[in-house]
Fold:
Amino acid sequence: MTSSGTVATPPSCRAAASTRARRTRCRPFTIVALGHTYLEKGGNPAQVPVVHVWRFEGGTPKRIQVLTDTLQSAKLVGAV
Structure:
């Protein structure tokens, strides 16, 4: 992805001093990051959109989904 940064902890999670308190006080939340991946095959460059979906519970990442345009990527490598 072209963008970078840090994930901010929600205020309700920062206020909880212990791990146990953090798990009980923090509500689940989701962060979505949009970007692009740059690919190249045989001198043929392409910019493919990508989305990262991060799901947090108790202030801890529990699941990540990475979504991209697979058709565009397949065309670039000659699979389609």
